[in-house]
């Protein structure tokens, strides 16, 4: 799975909570998702919209990408307020039809043109959170080239829509998650999903669990993280990044695989482990991903340094 | 269940003369001569040249013979393999209805040219990519030659790995989806339910048996394997065992006795037996009988001297 961006960790935060937004750059996130939806009270929606344009550069000071989650029912007002230079992605909740995505695409295309943003810059993150969305997954994911990563099928809204419990000790969303992942893979999109790691408490700040989930996810081919509490950011960055031992092991696999060339064998077992073209492909992926993660970490460190210097703030 | 009994599909690389020679003694229900997964690119011309003789030799143990072909090299692979004695082809990485149409037409042409009864060469569709699985239903109904669907090496091709639970990521969903599509269209779902740490190539006999047993439990009828030591565990796992058959027989007997008394729901221990459970038990007995018949057939074939090439 080719990664177009490194998005291991990110915080979704209400744009109306000033202290969250002001400190976002210190969190080490790969992205910040400024929320206009469920974490913003209804009577503050208009006020919140007015804050996005200035918040975008603020949350990017630590090298994070800036996203905004809009409201399903206020597409025009929300997009008009948020599509500004510096925005990478619009997250659209409760996506249910391809037409919704085509509408978003058309409005974003116009706003990009009017506001001097390179055409195609702003991605659409279609979040599937209803049964109807699951049923239309493939059409939604293929409705616009702006949809580059795709997933959902879990969470509170999905849970309520399907009538399933949220925090149980087994995979209660297996079918919906499978449908979305198959659609995403069939279209060659990055998959936003996670393998099942039991969460029976609903805690959003459990760093150990976040690490285990990220690590299990990475081993199954997932690379996209995100959360609600700063405590999980570092755990996700670490869990989604290959370790030095894994990178060494990948090198070893590639060397063993190269040795097969010209022998007439397509695979070999070494210490109970198969080396073949599939393991070699995985090893190449691991090394590419490790390099991308390292580059992203450098970018973020440089951005943080620049910001500290500009603020005349000593390094901690 | 009238489909042929095909519990074990031993994949044998056409580049390996020794493995081809051993295969008939493996006890496999099907020998799948491979031109795709286990033949190095440079060895493919020689492997194709060996196919016709290998098909003949592979029958010695009573196995049916399939060839595993590459949709990217279809003309060369099918020309090499479509000879009398071949039951059908497994098409790797099948992912579109257009590919099915191509295979179908080429097989028809080769049947006509090589004296094979029209329409008899079968296709097993190996849906090993996301696109293939997404299009499963359309693919499977594109040609009446399609008699089987398998996930083949999906886990490797899609790079699906173990989750903390031990399940291979996405496979429970993909397996159930494939079984549903296959049964909806009356074709046979082929596969086994592997869990970590077993990986098909190296899985020891015990793990292979359990993968087959779990696979049968969710509707699979047989599975591919690569090691001769995996053949017997697959045959066993996909055959109802004696205890299952005895329990089914008791259930059927109790049901028939009830029907003779004028009731179609009878108590058996703390279970209630009705037409549904009796029908299921009968199907299991039919499967057990068909497996036993297939085993006898293979034993007789193995006892016969190898016929000379026609």
Describe, in plain words, how this protein is organized in 3D.
The complex is a heterodimer of chains A (316) and B (310). With 316 residues, chain A is an alpha/beta fold. Chain A has 12 helices and 9 strands. Chain A folds into 2 domains: 10-240, TIM Barrel; 244-310. In chain A, helix 2 packs parallel to helix 3 (75-82), helix 3 runs parallel beside helix 4 (98-114) and helix 11 (244-259) runs antiparallel to helix 12. With 310 residues, chain B is of the alpha/beta class. Chain B folds into 2 domains: 8-238, TIM Barrel (Alpha-Beta Barrel); 240-310. Chain B is 46% helix and 14% strand. Chain A binds chain B through residues 1, 138, 171, 174-175, 177-179, 181-183, 185-186, 195-197, 212, 216, 219-221, 262-267, 269, 272, 274, 276, 278, 281-282, 285, and chain B through 13, 15, 37-40, 42-43, 130-131, 133-135, 153, 156-165, 169-170, 172-174, 177, 199, 201-202.
Label this structure with key terms:
heterodimer; A: 316 residues; TIM Barrel; B: alpha/beta; 2 domains; eight-stranded parallel β-sheet; 12 helices; globular
């Amino acid at each position: 799975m080719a990664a177009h961006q490194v998005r291991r960790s990110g915080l979704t935060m209400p744009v109306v909570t000033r202290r969250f937004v002001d400190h976002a750059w210190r969190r080490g996130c790969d992205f910040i998702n400024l929320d206009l939806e469920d974490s913003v009270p209804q009577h503050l929606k208009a006020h919140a919209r007015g804050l996005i344009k200035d918040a975008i550069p603020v949350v990017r000071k630590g090298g994070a990408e800036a996203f905004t989650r809009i409201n399903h029912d206020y597409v025009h007002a929300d997009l008009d307020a948020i599509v500004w230079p510096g925005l990478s992605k619009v997250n659209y909740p409760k996506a249910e039809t391809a037409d919704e995505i085509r509408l978003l695409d058309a409005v974003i295309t116009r706003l990009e043109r009017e506001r001097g943003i390179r055409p195609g810059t702003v991605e659409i993150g279609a979040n599937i959170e209803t049964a109807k969305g699951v049923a239309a997954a493939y059409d939604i994911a293929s409705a616009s080239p702006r949809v580059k990563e795709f997933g959902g099928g879990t969470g509170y809204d999905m849970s309520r829509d399907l009538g399933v419990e949220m925090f149980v000790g087994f995979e209660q969303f297996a079918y919906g998650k499978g449908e979305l992942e198959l659609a995403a893979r069939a279209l060659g999109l990055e998959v936003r999903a996670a393998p099942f790691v039991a969460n029976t408490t609903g805690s959003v700040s459990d760093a150990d669990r976040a690490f285990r989930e990220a690590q299990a996810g990475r081993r199954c081919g997932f690379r996209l993280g995100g959360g609600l509490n700063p405590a999980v950011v570092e755990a996700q960055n670490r869990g989604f990044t290959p370790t030095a031992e894994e990178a060494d092991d990948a090198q070893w696999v590639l060397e063993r695989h190269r040795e097969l060339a010209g022998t007439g064998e397509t695979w070999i077992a070494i210490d109970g482990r198969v080396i073949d073209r599939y393991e070699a492909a995985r090893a190449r992926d691991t090394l590419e991903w490790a390099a991308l993660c390292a580059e992203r970490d450098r970018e973020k460190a440089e951005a943080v340094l620049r910001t500290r210097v500009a603020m005349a703030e000593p390094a901690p | 269940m009238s489909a042929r009994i095909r519990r074990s599909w031993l994949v044998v690389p056409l580049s390996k003369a020794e493995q081809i020679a051993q295969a008939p003694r493996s006890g496999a229900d099907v020998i799948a001569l491979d031109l795709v997964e286990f033949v190095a690119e440079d060895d493919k011309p020689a492997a194709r040249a060996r196919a016709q003789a290998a098909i003949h030799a592979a029958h010695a143990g009573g196995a049916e013979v399939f060839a595993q072909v590459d949709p990217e090299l279809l003309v060369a692979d099918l020309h090499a393999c479509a000879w009398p004695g071949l039951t059908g082809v497994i098409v790797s990485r099948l992912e579109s209805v257009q590919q099915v149409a191509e295979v179908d037409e080429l097989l028809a042409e080769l049947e006509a040219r090589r004296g094979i009864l029209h329409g008899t060469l079968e296709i097993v569709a190996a849906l090993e990519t996301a696109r293939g699985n997404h299009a499963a239903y359309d693919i499977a109904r594109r040609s009446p030659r399609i008699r089987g669907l398998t996930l083949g090496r999906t886990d490797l091709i899609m790079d699906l790995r173990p989750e903390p639970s031990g399940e291979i990521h996405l496979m429970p969903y993909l397996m159930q989806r494939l079984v549903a599509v296959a049964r909806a269209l009356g074709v046979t779902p082929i596969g086994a339910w592997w869990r970590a740490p077993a990986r098909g190539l190296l899985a020891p006999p015990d793990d292979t048996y359990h993968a087959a047993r779990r696979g049968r439990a969710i509707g699979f009828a047989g599975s591919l394997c690569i090691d001769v030591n995996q053949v017997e565990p697959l045959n066993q796992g996909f055959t109802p065992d004696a205890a299952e058959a005895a329990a089914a027989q008791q259930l059927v007997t109790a049901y028939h006795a009830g029907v003779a008394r004028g009731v179609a729901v009878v108590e058996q221990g703390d279970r209630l037996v009705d037409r549904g459970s009796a029908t299921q038990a009968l199907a299991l007995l039919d499967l057990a009988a068909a497996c036993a018949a297939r085993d006898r057939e293979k034993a007789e074939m193995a006892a016969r001297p190898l016929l000379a090439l026609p």
